[in-house]
Each structure stands twice: as structure tokens, then as C-alpha cells.
């Protein structure tokens, strides 16, 4: 069962492009350093491994928020919508 | 009942400090442009109103993720931990 995941990251300038490119294979870009989307556990594992390979653990920071159900979840945007895909609000 | 909320924002350079200062009254800073924490509906409303007053709707972007239950929620950090407070992982 896919889980809803929000990834936020704060990485060194030199690694930002590669991190974004890797994360975009699995999640939707919604805002500066923020991606989200439905992802299977297997792909979430793959994403984490790929990010580990291209990042510096002592400098970079990633937070994965995962939610097993969307029933209790809501998402509200204020201001300009940056991400491309349309999510049910 | 407080809800768990994640706030991510992408705002104009001139407004970053004020936005962060306002958001920190209600949530914990965890990473560049990311705050989180338990917040009552009333305070969430206040936070949104205060942010609206100090931001430019046509330039700035805020996303509020709110979760009514933490039962299905998990949070995992990889790399350096930036935020100050300790959250159950």
C-alpha cells in the first residue's frame, strides 16, 4: 500500500541539483526543497538509499514525513502555488 | 484537540525573518523553511492570519500540512538534525 510522503531537505549547494533530480523520480516537487506524493515502501527505501549515496551525512539534512492514511490529512496552500501537479486540497 | 502541523514556506528574502519569527511563536523550527508541531485549531487560524498580514500573496508560498492523528505518522531524519527540539521518531 503506498504511503503519503513529504520530503524536506537542506543540502549543500553543490548537491541540490542531483538531490532534486533523484527525488523527482519518486515524488512531486511542490516548493523549494519540498517534495511530496504517494510512494510504495519499496520505492521509499530505494529513494533513501539513492539519496544517501549522493549526499554528505555530516552536512546535509533530510526529513521524511510518512503517513499511512490520508484520512486525517489535509493540505492548504496560501499564496502562489509552485508545484506542477494538482493535489486534492 | 491539537493537530500535528508541518509548515513549509518559500517567501521573498525581505520577509523571511518576519515570517520565521511569527511562525516560531506557534511551531518548532526543524529545518530551512520548515516548522512543525502540535497546534490548536484556534492558534492555527491565528498563525495563518498573522502570516497573511506580513506576506505578499502574489509572491510568497506557504503549505500547511495538518494531521488529526499521529497514529499513522512517522518522521525520519537522515543526516544532521537541525531543529532544536526532540521529536519521537
TrEMBL record, chains A, B:
Q: Which GO terms describe its molecular function?
A: hydrolase activity; metal ion binding; RNA endonuclease activity
Q: Which UniProt keywords apply?
A: Antiviral defense, Endonuclease, Hydrolase, Magnesium, Metal-binding, Nuclease
Q: Where does Mg(2+) bind?
A: 10
Q: Which Pfam families is this protein grouped with?
A: CRISPR_Cas2 (PF09827)
Q: Which residues cross the membrane?
A: none
- Tell me which cofactor or cofactors this protein depends on: Mg(2+)
Per the record's keyword annotation, is Phosphoprotein included, yes or no?
A: no
What InterPro entries does the entry give?
Answer: CRISPR_associated_Cas2, Virulence_VapD/CRISPR_Cas2
From the UniProt record, give one GO term of the biological process aspect.
maintenance of CRISPR repeat elements
Q: Which EC number(s) are documented for this chain?
A: 3.1.-.-
| Enzyme class name | hydrolase
* SUPFAM superfamilies from the UniProt entry: TTP0101/SSO1404-like
CDD domains xref list: Cas2_I_II_III
Q: Can you tell me which residues the record assigns to a coiled coil?
A: none
Please explain the role this protein plays, according to its UniProt record: CRISPR (clustered regularly interspaced short palindromic repeat), is an adaptive immune system that provides protection against mobile genetic elements (viruses, transposable elements and conjugative plasmids). CRISPR clusters contain sequences complementary to antecedent mobile elements and target invading nucleic acids. CRISPR clusters are transcribed and processed into CRISPR RNA (crRNA). Functions as a ssRNA-specific endoribonuclease. Involved in the integration of spacer DNA into the CRISPR cassette.
What assembly does the database describe for this protein? Answer: Homodimer, forms a heterotetramer with a Cas1 homodimer.
What family is this?
Belongs to the CRISPR-associated endoribonuclease Cas2 protein family.
Protein's name according to its UniProt entry: CRISPR-associated endoribonuclease Cas2
Q: Which organism is it from?
A: Anaerocolumna xylanovorans DSM 12503
**Gene name?**
cas2
Amino acid at each position: 500500500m503506498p504511503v503519503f510522503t513529504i520530503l524536506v531537505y537542506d543540502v549543500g549547494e553543490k548537491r541540490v541539483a542531483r538531490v532534486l533530480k533523484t527525488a523527482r523520480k519518486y515524488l512531486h516537487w511542490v516548493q523549494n526543497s519540498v517534495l511530496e506524493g504517494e510512494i510504495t515502501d519499496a520505492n521509499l527505501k530505494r529513494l533513501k538509499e539513492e539519496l544517501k549515496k549522493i549526499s554528505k551525512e555530516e552536512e546535509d539534512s533530510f526529513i521524511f514525513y510518512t503517513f499511512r492514511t490520508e484520512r486525517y490529512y489535509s493540505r492548504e496552500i496560501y499564496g502562489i502555488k509552485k508545484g506542477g501537479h494538482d493535489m486534492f486540497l
